[in-house]
Amino acid sequence: MRGIRWLLGGLLGLAAVACGGRPRAAEPDPATSLPPLPNASRYLDIPTYDGSGQPMHPDVVYFPRGWRGYRYWMAMTPYPYDSDTREDPSVVASNDGLHWEVPPGLTNPLVPTPACDHNSDPDLVYDPDADALLLFFTQQQRRSRCGAVNENRLLLMRSSDGVHWTAPRVVLRWNLDTSPLYLSPAVVYRDGTFHLWLASQTAGVAHATSADGVQWSPLEPVSIDALPWHLDVEYVSELSRFWMLFVDSPSAGSRLKLATSDDGVQWAVREQPLLEPGRGWDADRIYRATFVYEEGPRLRVWYSARSRGGQWHTGYTWSGASATATSS
To answer: What is the rounded distance in angstroms from the CA atom of residue 46 to the CA atom of residue 108?
Structure first.
C-alpha cells in the first residue's frame, strides 16, 4: 500500500509538470509560522470612568465597514493597582484601533459596583441576526466578602446601538461550594450558535453552546495541553478554525500563547509564545488579550499588561510590526 501511495504521488506530480505547473508544496500553518509579536513601546490612552487611565481585560469587535459610527468597539474594565472594586464593565470605541473614546450618549460603567465583591472580565460579541452587540461579564459573590452568599455568575447585556444597554441578566451561576471559579468568558457567534469558553485554574477550560446566549448547554471540558488563565477566542473564517489567545499563568512573568481548534473542544497549542513581558509598561506580566486575524497572515492584538510598579494598561501590536511602531 505504501508503494502504491508513493507511485500515485509521483504520477500526480508528473501530471502537474506536464500541464505546465509544479507539484504544490504544502502551505505553512499560520499558527506556527507567525513570528513572535513585538512589545508595544507605549500603552494606549484609553479613558476609564474612574479617571485612573488603567484599563485592562480588553475585548475588541471589529467592523471593517463600521457599525453605529465606529469600526472598533471595545469592552474593558479599570483595574488600578489591582483594585478589583473598579472592575466594572465599560465600553469605548475607535475608528483606527489606536485612539479610543466614550461614544456620545454612553456613560461608563455600564454596571455599578455590587454591594459586595466585584464584577469582572467583560466580553463583547456581535450578533448579526439581531444586528446587536452582546456583552457578557462575570460577577463574584464570595462568602469571604458577602457572608452567606458564595457563588459566581455570568451576566448578559444587549445593545442595538452600543450606547443604550439592557439591564444585566444572569444567564449562568455556580455555587462555589461545589463548582470551580470560572473567569474570563470568551463568546463567539457562528452559524446561529453561540460558543462560550471559560477559564479556571483548578478545572481548566470549559465550553458550552447556546442558541440565544441565555440558555446554555452543560459545560464540557476541552482538551488542551496547557492550563490557560485569561483567554480570548475568535473563529477565523479564512482558515475555518477557532483561534485562542491565552496567558499561561496568573502570576508575574506570564506570557501570551496561541492555540487552534477545528471544533472548539480539541485544541493544539503553539509551543513558542507570541508575546513575553517587555522592559517598560508591560514588564511584570502579560495579561488578557484580544485580536483580529487578517489574511497575509497578520495578527493584530490589543493586550493588557502590568508594570513592575503595579499599573495596568492596554497596548497594541501586530505581527510584523517594529517595536517603535506599536504605540499611539
So the answer is: 13
Residue 284: closest CA among 5, 48, 77, 81: 81
Encode the chain (328 residues) as per-residue pLDDT tens digits. 434 333 334 433 433 434 445 545 556 788 988 999 999 999 999 999 999 999 999 999 999 999 999 999 999 999 999 999 999 999 999 999 999 999 999 999 999 999 999 999 999 999 999 999 999 999 999 999 999 999 999 999 999 999 999 999 999 999 999 999 999 999 999 999 999 999 999 999 999 999 999 999 999 999 999 999 999 999 999 999 999 999 999 999 999 999 999 999 999 999 999 999 999 999 999 999 999 998 878 899 999 999 999 999 999 999 976 654 454 4
- At 313, list the grid cell: 494598561
Cα 47 → chain centroid: 20
The alpha helices in the chain, defined as continuous H runs, are 2-18, 30-33, 143-146
Residue 160 CA to residue 229 CA, distance in Å, equals 31
Count of CB atoms situated within 10 Å of the CB of 67: 18
